[in-house]
Amino acid sequence: MLTIKNLHASIEGTPILRGINLEVKAGEVHAIMGPNGSGKSTLASVLAGREEYEVTEGEVSFKGKDLLDLAPEDRAREGVFLAFQYPVEIPGVSSTNFLRTAVNQVREYRGLEALDAVKFLTMMKEKMKLVEIDQKLLSRSLNEGFSGGEKKRNEIFQMAMLEPTLSILDETDSGLDIDALRIVSNGVNQLKSKDNATIVVTHYQRLLDYIVPDYVHVLYKGKIVKSGTKELALELEEKGYDWIKEAVDSEATV
Amino acid sequence: MSTLTKQNLFEGFLETSFAGFERAREEGKASFLKQGLPTLKSEEYKFTAITKKLEQSITSFQSAQPFAVSQEEVKAGIPTGFEGTVLVFANGHFIPELAIDAAELTFSELSEKPETAVGSIARADKDPFAALNQSSFYGGIFIQIPKKAVVVKPILLLSFNKANEGQLIQPRVWIEAGDFSEVTFITHTINKSETPYFVNKVVEIKGGVNSQIRYYRVQNEGKNAIEASTLETNLLQDSRFTSVNISLSGEMVRNNLNLNLLGSNSEGNMYGIYLLNGKTHVDNHTNVDHTIPHAESNELYKGILADQSRGVFNGKIFVRQDAQKTNAFQQNNNILLSEDAIVNTKPQLEIWADDVKCSHGCTTGQLDEEALFYLQARGIDKTQAKGLLLFAFAGEVLEHIHDESFKNYCTDLVQERLGSKF
Question: What is the predicted pLDDT for the residue at A253?
Fold first, then answer.
């Protein structure tokens, strides 16, 4: 589904990603872990099409298409979804109107009929249950005054509405209490299927108790320096990142 | 540039005789000649070179004559969904025959009310253009809302402008809202010519005790129109005045909005949006004068500027020594969509009382790129995402339009502008 080859990206001339290789197949869950500043969020942003990052080398193909060639909105319409680390508050834009516009533009691109108000509401109610989000919250401006947990739940709710094939969760667990974490993970797990894939970007192993990954990759200094299964995450939890850092750094000095 | 100078610019014009109001006209003329046309050295006009614009565009000063407007044109000019009284003006001349649904309204040509204290609210000595209008207005209108009258449907002041190049349109409106009356005015202009012309309008409103007056205005002048307008309102005890001004086009527009809070518990509200592109220049000067205790004023102006447009906001809040317990709030926010667009914003608070609550704030920034990316990342087209964000920014002002159908009309107008031109 997603093939990343030798991806290099920089921001304002500073290289952040220095040759990422990753293959994600339908039905898989990949966890990307790593210390702060390793480039985890950059990878998520580059995949979603954030303009500040400049891709200097490499390629990304998504379902056979050159992902880097698409505008952010077209990536979303093709089925890429980024759950933001910091969901943006947008005063004056109602959550419901925003979602209806988004859902219908995505559907139009996929050759589906636009949803009328009734069908949209029915769909919304059904998906709201997934993340236990309250209707009242959705009648407010998008994310405005939402608590941290509410914002993250709203991200997963949007994900449910847009039915992506590749979901990228960027530190969705950071700052969540255990109840919110359970709700968010539960939502993600219910949306999992053999046809879609998930990339979980996280700093902590805790999330992976709830969203169990098939593969775990450790990102450090802009490269995947170690890959393994969920056991790797447990090892990281126990030992921290230092042993990996040391291994990589000593190799670099040799 | 022509050989016209400030001194001789209006000389010939001012010699023309106009019917009625001799004393007021003399006063206006004297005051105009004393003040002269404003230069950039004048504090109140330092960001708006209107005199230069006039010298460039206006070659001969003549009053634009009334012209025939058909009933079809009137119908076509009424904002979609509008229901209420319509009063029609051609080049500022009131055309009584074209009025619609006006049987219950008290109004007449201003000249039929020679006792009207023209210039007593919008004083000539305060602004050169108000003085010019006072010297040489014509065909104005007098509207009276009787005591306790609640005019449920809005009153539309529909102006048709078709001036020849360089002509002057000088409308004058006098409105008296009786004690305990309630009324909504909507002003709307239809352009019939693209030549440069100058509209210099003065509206004076007398708000009685406990009156409720709303004044909504869409400024959609011709691309080449230069406009100076003064709206001044006196408010007595327990009265409330709300102005919503939407500026969309014009070569150069200067709005003076002055509220005089003369009675306790009176309330003045000033809201505005300016959505500018091309080389349009819009200058909103507002002034609220708190003269007595326990009055309130609220102000919110929002601007979105593209291309080489320029916006000026100058909001003065004057709290006199006696005006204790004043509440005055002012806010001006701008978004610049191009590097060539300019905003000059200047809050001006002059407070002489010591027990008041006043706040003001202004911001100027760019469109929030992070928010734009967020919407795009959800599959929303970039142009539409921009439109959504800009409307979210400016739309707040439209909430203050009380008349539902006019609010919808303005919403469409604003959305259309934000979805296409920016």
Answer: 67
CATH number reported for the structural domain that contains residue A19 in this entry:
3.40.50.300
A111-134 pLDDT tens trace: 999 999 999 999 999 999 988 888
Are B392 and A102 inside 8 Å of each other by CB?
no
In a domain, B344, yes or no: no
Query: Closest Cα to residue A45, out of B389, B370, B380?
Result: B370
Same domain, residue pair B47 and B168: yes
Report chain B residues whose CB lies below 8 A from the CB of A162: 378-379
Of B25-29, B180-184, B239-243, which range is least confident? Answer: B25-29
Among B222, B237, B263, the domain-final residue is: B263
Identity of the residue in A87, A92, A105 whose CB atom sits nearest the CB atom of B396: A92
* Cα separation, A231 vs A212, whole angstroms: 11
- CA of B382: which chain A residue's CA is closest? A73
Alpha-carbon gap, residue B216 to B230, rounded angstroms: 14
Over pLDDT 90: what percentage of chain A? Answer: 77
**Of A51, A91, A162, which is closest to B392 when you measure between CB atoms?**
A91
Burial of residue B197, with CB atoms counted within 10 A of its CB: 0-12 exposed, 13-18 middle, 19 or more buried = buried
Once rounded to an integer, what is the mean pLDDT over residues B299-313? 97
Cβ of residue A84 closer than 8 Å to a chain B Cβ: yes
Q: Which of B213, B245, B263 is the last residue of a domain?
A: B263
Half-sphere exposure of A144 (CA within 13 A, CB side): 12
Q: How many domains, chain A?
A: 1
CB contact under 8 A, B379 and A162: yes
> CA-based angle B157:B281:B318, to the nearest 5?
75
With contacts defined as CB-CB under 8 Å, which chain A residues touch B374?
84, 87-88, 90
Residue B243 is assigned to a structural domain of this protein = yes
Question: Does A76 sit within 8 Å of B377, measured CB to CB?
Answer: yes
Q: How far is A232 from chain B (nearest CA, A)?
A: 31
Q: What is the C-alpha R_g of chain B? A: 21
C-beta atoms of A76 and B379 within 8 A: yes
pLDDT, one tens digit per residue, over A170-222 is 999 888 889 889 999 998 999 999 999 999 999 888 899 999 999 999 999 99
pLDDT tens digits, B143-161: 999 999 999 999 999 999 9
> Does B56 reside within a domain?
yes
**CB-CB under 8 Å, A88 with B381:** no
Cα–Cα distance measured from residue B199 to residue B225, given in angstroms and rounded to the nearest whole number: 7
A49, A92, A105 member nearest B380 (Cβ)? A105
